[in-house]
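Tutorial, part two.
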Amino acid sequence: MLYHITLHLARSKDFPEGSAHRGYEITAPLDGAGLLDQESWATQRSQCRVRRFWDDEAPRQGVLVHRAGGAGGATWMIDYDQDRTGDEEPGYRLSQHRFASGEYVTIKNEDDAPHTFQVVAVEPIGRQSAAVAR
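Running the prediction step on this input gives:
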């Protein structure tokens, strides 16, 4: 099942209160434990989109990809232009982190600087439309 996941920048030295103006909106499949579901991703990858918002910068649109290499043999990352390399933002062990409200995940930006984000919302996609259809 696909979920709409919202991440906000977590508290840090530069942002002691965190920031709801810096983060990501991710559409991705999760398993029953709230982990990224690689098998479902493989069949729904065209729907696995990411929107990065960062203060006054224009939002960036990308896709969630799973690539060989990295910890555990593969890495989840955000790819903004699949026709060129170097614009990807890899997650840190995203396959091992639960996407549930209050949990934390780390994503490195294009400059390889890691940022920690708090999961602030995880909503199943289609839940409202299914309820309306009844």
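The helical segments are 38-44, 127-133. In part three we will examine how such features are distributed along the chain.
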